[in-house]
Request: fold
Amino acid sequence: MASLATASPNPVDSAAHGSFLSKQRTIAGPGFSRWLVPPAALCIHLCIGMAYGFSVFWLPLSKAVGITQPIACEADMSFFALLVAAHCDWKISQLGWMYTLFFVFLGCSAAIWGGWLERAGPRKAGVVSACCWCGGLLISARGVYLHHTQQRQTFQKQDHRIVFGCSGSEELEQLDPETTKSAYG
Reply:
């Protein structure tokens, strides 16, 4: 019996079974506190729950430009032009597409990457999913930044026309750059 116990080393104690992210290292050794599993599962479910919490942001996002009342877009704008427009607000029906796309991509990713998860193990899948999640937050932050920058430039041109009495962009371009720079500090 003693020779049988020494013949199969504990995968957690042995570095021969792969790196920290390998599937073999996910087998719990003796003395592992199983109470670490529920908090980890709760964190994962809270991340997934962000999609359900999106409904809280629908109304504020539908008034992002108009603040108190939504500013309607032109009727002849295409769907993609509406998504990147900075001079008008999104409709709640357009914001619903983001919610729908989340669940479509969630289901597709489970179908596509589920087999890889079984082969690679939960640690590698967790690291990849954390990178994707953080990458999505960075991409959305970049989108908010670009939308805000475009909005600010639009409002500055409108302020410019009011301050200098310009009626069109041609007159605005003919103004002295030093004069316009001093007006905005």
